[in-house]
Design brief:
The complex is a heterodimer. Chain A is α+β, with helices and mostly antiparallel strands. Chain A has a single domain, classed as RNA polymerase II/Efflux pump adaptor protein, barrel-sandwich hybrid domain (OB fold (Dihydrolipoamide Acetyltransferase, E2P), Beta Barrel). Chain A is built from five helices and twelve strands. In chain A, strands 7-10-11-5-4-3-12 form a seven-stranded antiparallel beta sheet. A three-stranded antiparallel beta sheet of chain A has the order 6-8-9. A two-stranded antiparallel ribbon of chain A has the order 1-2. Chain A is globular. Chain B is of the alpha+beta class. In chain B, the strands form three sheets. In chain B, strands 7-8-9-10-6-2-1-11 form an eight-stranded mixed beta sheet, sandwiched between helices. Chain B has a four-stranded antiparallel beta sheet with strand order 12-13-14-15. Chain B has a three-stranded mixed beta sheet with strand order 4-3-5, sandwiched between helices. The longest helix of chain B is centred in the N-terminal third of the chain and has 17 residues. The chains are: A alpha+beta, B alpha+beta. At the A-B interface, strand 6, strand 8 and strand 9 of A face helix 4 and strand 9 of B. Strand 9 of chain A pairs parallel with strand 9 of chain B, so a sheet runs across the interface.
Chain lengths: 145, 357
């Protein structure tokens, strides 16, 4: 587990540093997608979640769901392209689960990637996580994530 | 000094404004200019992006009054707008703001807008999370949307306001339209016309907002219009937004957002709570306290209601106690626990479904 300030980044996940999204490769080749704890703390406690429909195809870096905190609405962007195979009913009822457990019960969608091997190369994982997020913070002029 | 663009769109249909929202935000994300936009609406009931028309609006009244219904791309609650209210928007990059913390961004923009309103000689202030108030009464509501590092933050300013029409259109916790409900609403909402005794010229409203945002961000504003590329994005967005499918994008039953009421007689007076309660999310969407209790200053009640907006049911006691611990107010024998009790009694009426997984 990598920690930067109050934010945690499990080492086994794949991250898009720019969008604050994580993906976990499951044994069957599907992925589970969610928001990083850092992204959650930036937007604040979430009060709404609206996923795209199961069966829809979403391109990489296109919105697979929207979330709302206070009065901010923002997209949760697909880390890779693929088909949405599940959305989180518990989060639909109570979006704050994403804040409470961003890497567990607060997952945003499950996807069947169209080209994981080709597109996952653009994601950061393992030992590169700390350097990538710290570089992003520096580029954004932030002292914390 | 850096110059940002100023677009004055005037009165358009809500669908056209929201297609412009999407176009200008996308353009900003692609490196387009930071922009201040002024706008006004034909009579419209405007849902927050994640809201359901059935839950938030009195649809029969909207039809009867010829009110257009639309869905914003930004968050927050449903509002009623017509030609007598004013809208402002900022399209920015987070680099313009020096932080990624969305609550800090909202505060900075709202405090600048509050200074613009205060320029009329009234004491307008930002009230978290997203309101601008005068004496506890809301004069401006705000909300935002972001995509990557680009963001759109928008607000209203009530130049004039028809409270009775608002109550007929929006499903607020004052469930029945009555003289009392209208009076209660007037305790919570203020307009420039009411506070000043006259409706100020719109040019003055615009000038004050332009000056305040310019001073806050250290920029000047250069009048402009959407570029051809932005108009292309607008034309692509309009058919989707100007459609029943968009307006009905979120459909939730009214039973999931009941108005729950409870009242209790305390030594300090009668206290009544009416809650718009998100039953599946176990969250207070909106709270109204009424009754014959004595509370001074009077704004305490409206401020407490603002503090409870979107509060998780489980957090009510902590929020109410924190609120009163930082306030100097006189309530005779009424106590913070009385408020907690009456809110809990109201929430208890959500029934066993409150514990539904």
């Amino acid at each position: 587990m990598t920690s930067i300030g109050d934010c945690l980044f499990p080492d086994e996940l794949f991250y898009n540093v720019d969008t604050g999204i994580w993906a976990r490769r499951e044994a069957d080749g599907t992925i589970t997608v969610g928001m990083t704890s850092c992204a959650c703390s930036m937007v604040g406690e979430l009060v709404a979640y609206l996923p795209k429909k199961v069966g829809e195809h979403v391109e990489r870096n296109k919105s697979l769901a929207t979330v709302e905190s206070g009065k901010w609405v923002g997209p949760v962007k697909a880390p890779v392209g693929g088909e949405i195979i599940a959305v989180n009913g518990a989060v639909a009822a109570k979006a704050a689960i994403i804040n409470a457990d961003p890497y567990g019960r607060g997952w945003v969608a499950k996807m069947k990637p169209a080209n994981w091997d080709g597109e996952a190369a653009g994601l950061i994982t393992g030992a590169g996580v700390r350097a990538a997020f710290e570089a992003k913070m520096k580029a954004d002029g932030l002292s914390r994530c | 000094m850096t110059a940002w663009r100023l677009i004055d769109s005037g009165i358009l249909r809500a669908a056209e404004h929201f297609a412009l929202n999407r176009a200008l935000l996308e353009a900003r994300r692609q490196g387009g200019p930071s922009t201040l936009r002024f706008l006004r609406f034909a009579p419209s009931a405007l849902l927050g992006y994640h809201q359901s028309a059935e839950q938030e609006l009195r649809l029969d009244a909207c039809t009867e009054l010829g009110i257009d219904i639309q869905r914003r791309i930004s968050g927050g609650g449903a509002i009623f707008m017509d030609e007598t209210q004013f809208g402002w928007e900022l399209y920015l990059d987070r680099a313009d703001l020096g932080t990624r913390d969305m609550s800090i961004i909202a505060r900075r923009i709202c405090e600048a807008a509050a200074r613009a309103v205060s320029g009329f000689g009234i004491d307008a202030r930002f009230r978290p999370r997203n309101d601008i108030e005068v004496g506890g009464r809301k004069i401006s509501g705000t909300g935002g949307v972001f995509d990557g590092d680009a963001l759109l933050y928008q607000g209203t300013l009530l130049v004039e306001f028809d409270v009775e029409k608002m109550l007929r259109i929006l499903r607020v916790p004052a469930e029945k339209l009555s003289g009392k409900a209208i009076a209660d609403a007037r305790d919570r909402v203020a307009s420039l016309a009411e506070l000043l005794g006259f409706a100020p010229p719109l040019d003055e409203v615009k000038a004050r907002l332009e000056q305040a945002f310019g001073a806050e961000f250290g920029v000047t504003f250069q009048p402009g219009t959407p570029s051809e590329g932005e108009l292309e994005l607008y034309r692509a967005a309009l058919p989707e937004i100007d459609s029943p499918a968009w307006i009905n994008l979120v459909g939730k039953p009214r039973s999931d957002l009941p108005i729950l009421e409870a009242a209790k007689k305390f030594p300090g007076g009668l206290l009544r709570a009416a809650l718009a309660f998100d039953r599946p999310g176990e969250r207070i969407r909106q709270a109204w306290f009424t009754g014959d209790m004595f509370v001074n200053p009077r704004r305490t009640i409206a401020d407490l209601e603002a503090a409870l907006k979107n509060a998780a049911g489980a957090d009510v006691a902590g929020i109410v106690r924190d609120f009163f611990s930082t306030r100097d107010c006189d309530m005779l024998t009424l106590t913070p626990d009385d408020f907690i009790m009456v809110v809990h009694q109201a929430m208890a009426q959500a029934g066993p479904e409150r514990t539904r997984p």
